[in-house]
Amino acid sequence: xxxxxxxxxxxxxxxxxxxxxxxxxxxxxxxxxxxxxxxxxxxxxxxxxxxxxxxxxxxxxxxxxxxxxxxxxxxxxxxxxxxxxxxxxxxxxxxxxxxxxxxxxxxxxxxxxxxxxxxxxxxxxxxxxxxx
Length: 132
Hints:
The chain is built from 4 helices and 7 strands, in the order αββββαββααβ. The protein is an alpha+beta fold.
């Protein structure tokens, strides 16, 4: 009797990662990867970016995404998981995501928020949901 292939859950593999490489796709199908901070809530992955960043523009043109565990420099390791990416627009949920990011990344997230606020970039962030 042959063994069934082992199916690995993105949640099980990526939940303990510090960074993930988020790949979004150009119109011609080429992937562009960026290491991002993320949190996992209710089985979905969430991150933030400048609203005018390339990954957000590619998300709007093509809702396809790929997540892979990585280091701070974006060097990937392990399995990759295909998914769908979209914006989060509900203000209370966005605040919950930011609270979760602050809990996970501590002083680093607080410093990022501080400089984003004094530069005016905080209100121009986009919060993204990736469902795999």
